[in-house]
Amino acid sequence: MSFMGPQIPGRNFLNCVHIRVPQELFLTLGLISLVENILVILAIIRNRNLHSPMYYFICCLAVSDMLVSVSNVVETIFMLLNDNDLLDVHPGALRHLDNVIDVMICSSVVSSLSFLCTIAADRYITIFYALRYHSIMTTHRAITIIVLVWLTSITSSILFIVYHTDNAVIVCLVTFFCVTLVFNAALYLHMFVLAHIHSRRITAFQKGRRQSTSMKGAITLTILLGVFIFCWGPFFLHLFLILACPSSPLCKCFFQYFHLFLILIICNSLIDPLIYAYRSQELRKTLKELVLCCWCFGM
C-alpha cells in the first residue's frame, strides 16, 4: 500500500531474520477467503430466517473481508504475471491499479471496524432493551446505518489515498483503530457484567431464552473482535512505529516483517466465516446446503 511508510527490502538490521512469503501463498489464502465470504453472503441472502439487522451487519462484515480477498488476489496475480514477464502494462496503469487496491483495503479496514462497533451496539440493545428492540433497530434504520458506514468508509479511504504522503493519514487510522477498540471493550465489559446480574432476576422462561440467545450473539462478536485485534494489531503497530521511530534500527527490523502482517490480515478474512458457521446453527445449515448444491452442480 502506498501510505504504509518506508519498506526496506534487501537490508538486515540487528541481524533480523528475513522471511520471504511466497506469492502463491498470498494467492491461495486469498482465493479460499474469497470463496468462504461469498458463501456466507449467499447464505444470508438465501435464508429468510437470517434476514435480521444483526445478520445484515454480519453480511456487510463479510463484504469487508471479501474486499481484502479480492484486492489480494488481483494484486498477487498481477505481480506473478509481471515477475514472469507475462504482462506488459504501462507504469501509469499499474499506479492506478495500486490506488484502487489501496482504496479497497482501506475501505475494508474502516468498514470492518465500523461494523464491529455496530454489531456490538446491536447486541447491547438486544440484551438490555429486548422488549423494545424491534422498534429501536428497525430494518429501515439498519439499512440507513449500513449505507452511512459504506459511504463514510469509501469517502475516507479515497481521501486517505489522495493524501497518503501526509502523516495525518496514519494518525487518523491508528486513532480510529484505538477509539473503536476502547468503545467495543467498554461496551462488552458493561454488557457482560450487567447481563450476568440481570440474568439472575429473570424468571420467565421465554425471557430467559431470549437472554441466552442474545448473550450467544454477544459472545460470537467478542470472538470476532478478538480475532480482528490479533490479525490486524501488528499492521496498526507497524503504522504507529512509522510515526514513532521510522529511523530506529529496531523499528526497521520490525518493518521487514510487513508481509507476515499482510498474511495475518488475509487470515482474518479467512477465519471470520468459520466463526459465523461455528456459532450459528442456522447459518451453518444453510452453508452446508449451498456447498452441497455447488458440489452436485459441479458433478
Automatic annotation (TrEMBL):
Spans through the membrane: 25-45, 54-81, 101-121, 142-162, 168-197, 218-244, 256-278
Membrane topology qualifier: Multi-pass membrane protein
Keyword Secreted annotated: no
Keyword Cell membrane: yes
Main location: membrane
Key words of the record: Cell membrane, G-protein coupled receptor, Glycoprotein, Membrane, Receptor, Transducer, Transmembrane, Transmembrane helix
Gene Ontology molecular functions: melanocyte-stimulating hormone receptor activity
G-protein coupled receptors family 1 profile domain ranges (all copies): 36-276
InterPro entries: GPCR_Rhodpsn, GPCR_Rhodpsn_7TM, MC3-5R, Melcrt_ACTH_rcpt
Compartments it resides in: Cell membrane
Gene Ontology annotations for the cellular component aspect, listed alphabetically: plasma membrane
GO biological process: regulation of gene expression
Source taxon at top rank: Eukaryota
Similarity-based family: Belongs to the G-protein coupled receptor 1 family.
Name listed for the protein in its UniProt record: Melanocyte-stimulating hormone receptor
Species of origin: Cyprinodon variegatus
